[in-house]
Amino acid sequence: MTNLLLKLALKNKGGAETSSGRAAVGSLSGAVGITLNLILCLAKLIIGNISGSISITADALNNLSDASGSIVTLLGFKLAEKPADLDHPYGHARFEYLSGLAVSAMIILIGFELLRSSVEKIINPSSVAFSVPLGLVLGISILAKLWLAIFNKKLARLINSSALAATSSDSRNDVLATSAVLFAVIIEAITGFKVDGYVGLCVSVFILYSGIMLAKETISPLLGENASPELCKNIIEVVNSHELVLGYHDLMVHDYGPGQRFASLHVEMDVMEDPMVCHGVIDELERECLKKLGVHLVIHYDPIITGDKELDTAKKMVLDILSSFDSRLSIHDFRMVSGAEYTNLIFDIAIPYELSENDVKSYLDSKLNERGDKKYYTVITFDCEGFN
Fold first, then answer.
1. Biggest alpha carbon distance in the chain?
2. Among 66, 188, 312, 335, whose CB has the most other CB atoms within 10 angstroms?
3. From CA 283, how far away is CA 266, in angstroms rounded?
4. What rounded mean pLDDT belongs to the chain?
5. Is it the case that residue 200 has pLDDT exceeding 80?
6. What sign does the dihedral 74-77-82-88 (CA atoms) show?
7. pTM score > 0.70 for this model?
8. If you write DSSP's letter for every residue of 261-277 in order, what string do you get?
């Protein structure tokens, strides 16, 4: 079933990896989610009103929120497909994140409403009339939501979409929530205990939790979260594959939505190499990164001196001192300018967030000048460890 729907959705789209193909997969998920959730919502509202079950009605409203979420997801993928323009040169792919944020807001609002209704049912309990149609509707709902979870998980993997992955998780959570509702109805039918309001309360708390977690996942990339370790590793592998590259640092990745990632990186090469050759290598690496990873990479060329014994000795001395302070500290862009009275050591330090720049510099300067053989003056630029 899933393969057939995908085949129809991707017809004449050039594959799921293209911009139009990605939008088609997102639209497919939205259309299927809207249809299925509206059917389940209608069925549960009818059964919930007939039986007098607040937990079933709560579950129906949860399906309604899921249908609304599918509409927003569908719109989000459609808007994300818009090409870059003068006002938005980085494209509109972040609409996918914004759609996820809108879905989470709706889930949270409905969760609060269900919480209020459930508390009222606990204070004023009423009986739930069990029937075969009721059990049948809930059973079908569980199976339908299980299929929807698997369906969206496959689509999420196909286009590497966090929005569809969240939709899959939401459907999986609905399986658990509806199972809890069915459990409450059966318990009351067997024992007579009115647990409907309590189960509705649990379902509402579960919905609130899911909404909050979804909001956290969608807000994070909008705030500018760090790139995934896997993506950073892949970029470094591309860059480090060339023999002229001696080192790299300051990798910064900017995420403007799926398929719209931009990065910058400093690459170190021997100062004795022909600058035109180095420039050609950099162009080649940038093109390869875009082709293999879909990342628009800009590389800054850092020429470094190699084979200078005095510079290498000074660099090792600085590294040893920093390592004695904190083994996580690292340096790059190391240069040395000797003078009559003192020697300038000019370099960058990648520093963890929790360390103090003043403490590191004070410690390094004091240890350097304890040696007495030469006076050193350090010119340090501190870089964020997260980019190195």
1. 96
2. 66
3. 13
4. 83
5. no
6. positive
7. no
8. EEEEEEEEEETTS-HHH
C-alpha dist (Å) from residue 238 to 243, 291, 303: 11, 11, 19
Q: How many other C-beta atoms lie within 10 A of the C-beta of residue 291?
A: 10
Residue-wise pLDDT for 331-378, tens only, equals: 988 988 887 778 889 999 999 988 999 999 999 998 888 766 678 888
User: Once rounded to an integer, what is the mean pLDDT over residues 15-24?
Assistant: 72
Q: In what order do the strands lie in the sheet with 295-304?
A: 247-255, 261-270, 295-304
- Mean pLDDT value of segment 147-174: 83
Q: Are 196 and 118 in contact (CB under 8 A)?
A: no
CA torsion sign for 213, 215, 216, 221 is: positive
The tokens describing 254, both together, are 């900017």
Write down the pLDDT at residue 276: 93
Dihedral sign from CA coordinates of 149, 35, 96, 61: negative
**334 in helix, strand or coil?**
strand
The answer to whether 239 and 267 have CB atoms below 8 angstroms apart is: yes
344 φ, ψ (degrees, to nearest 5): -85, 130
- Model pLDDT, residue 372: 61
Give the CB-side neighbour count of residue 25, counting CA atoms within 13 A. Answer: 25
Sequence-distant (6+) residues with CB within 8 A of 147 are none
- Alpha carbons 36 and 67: distance in angstroms, whole number: 8
Show the tokens assigned to 352. 């963890």
Listed in sequence order, the DSSP H helices in the chain are 2-9, 19-51, 54-80, 95-123, 132-159, 162-191, 196-223, 229-240, 275-293, 309-325, 357-368
Q: What tokens were used for 115?
A: 């919480």
Region label for 242, one of left (φ > 0), alpha (ψ between -120 and 50) or beta (otherwise): beta
Tell me the mean pLDDT in the region 280-295.
91
Among candidates 376, 379, 290, which has minimal Cα distance to 331? 379
83-86 contacts: CB < 8 A, separation 24 or more? none
Q: Quote the tokens at residue 123.
A: 């204070």
